[in-house]
Amino acid sequence: MLSERRLEVLRAIVQDYVGTEEPVGSKALTERHSLGVSPATVRNDMAALEEEGFIAQPHTSAGRIPTDKGYRLFVDKLTAVKPMTAPERRAIQNFLEGAVDLDDVVGRTVRLLAQLTRQVAVVQYPSLTRSTVRHVELLSLAPARLMLVLITDTGRVEQRMIDCPAPFGEPSLADLRARLNSRVAGRKFADVPQLVQDLPEAFEAEDRGTVSTVLSTLLETLVEETEERLMIGGTANLTRFGHDFPLTIRPVLEALEEQVVLLKLLGEVGDSGMAVRIGHENAHEGLNSTSVVSVGYGSGGEAVAKLGVVGPTRMDYPGTMGAVRAVARYVGQILAES
Predict the structure, then answer these.
(1) Could you tell me the CA-to-CA distances from 273 to 18, 214, 266, 296, 303 in Å, in that order?
(2) Angstrom distance (rounded) from CA 56 to CA 45
(3) Out of 35, 39, 185, 331, which residue is the most buried by the measure of CB atoms under 10 Å away?
(4) Inter-helix orientation angle 317-337/102-117, to 10°
(5) pTM of the full structure
(6) Taking the CB of residue 137, how many other CB atoms lie within 10 A of it?
(7) How far apart are alpha carbons 255 and 243 in whole angstroms?
(8) Rounded CA gap, 147 and 160, in Å?
(9) Which string of b and e fits 99-123 if b means at least 16 CB within 10 Å?
(10) What is the CA radius of gyration of the chain?
């Protein structure tokens, strides 16, 4: 375990390196920070930090920079993330509240995160496997043709056309709509098949074929739409950090193009906690020079999806974590109210 003083020296090195992009020397540390010890003591502390792998000397520079291990300890020992200012919070709220549908919410969230953090933003669409049914609407288009509209608690809307085996009258349609919603509204997708399996038996023999067809379409919709989707934005921000990536940013860009990689990264976040993966903690080799800050978002305390940012390891961790957490909270509120 590091002593509190050496931890303070490490914090100062991380803050200075993130702020200046220059390797940090003992003289600069004692001038910029009230460490309460002599430059000689700071040099000894830095030598100990280097020996333990928390900082390193790049090339022939006199200064030191944090390693992945150093950033990890810095993040683990953070006492607080940087809070958003009142104007920033209002700006987030106003920007997201203008959204007209789920696609717009996700699109605005990506743009907002990329602007706030000046990193690459990644937002996963709410997962239907974790969603609940808000309402099922059935509309008659012709005597034997219906439209099924499935609305989720996250504002996602799915539409399907249904060709019925026989004409289906308005009274029967109203009855099916009412019975269906009484069983599935407010229930998890996973529970729906069991909740509706005996529904055809509640109808006259001539209507059971159509009821079964409607139920089959509903269940197929639940299965089809479990495919995960995400949106990414702010990739151009990486060009500002060209010197933070060894040789080239190409491996990072290639990794960001693979949705499977990004979904796996986001999938490693717990439902409610924030995850920060630094450098070589990222399993994908192309992301070994980056850090990923991600968190779950949703309504009612349960995460229905994840969002986060990808940037260089030389990152303002308190500020980035504060922005990611704040945006996730507002997106959750908007989904709850939609």
Answers:
(1) 25, 39, 12, 7, 10
(2) 13
(3) 331
(4) 160
(5) 0.77
(6) 14
(7) 18
(8) 6
(9) beebeebbebbbbbbbbbbbbbbbb
(10) 26
Q: What does the pLDDT look like over 158-185, one tens digit per residue?
A: 889 999 999 988 999 999 999 999 999 9
Running DSSP on this structure, what letter comes out for residue 203? Answer: S
- Give the C-alpha separation, 286 to 120, whole Å: 15
Q: Hey, what are 88's tokens? A: 């920033």
Which residue matches tokens 């004692």? 30
For the record, the structure tokens of 230 come out as 């995400």
Exposed, middle or buried: residue 212 (CB in 10 Å: 0-12, 13-18, 19+)?
middle
How far is residue 143's CA from residue 140's CA, in Å, rounded to a whole number? 7
pLDDT at position 13 is: 94
CB 298 within 8 A of CB 311: no
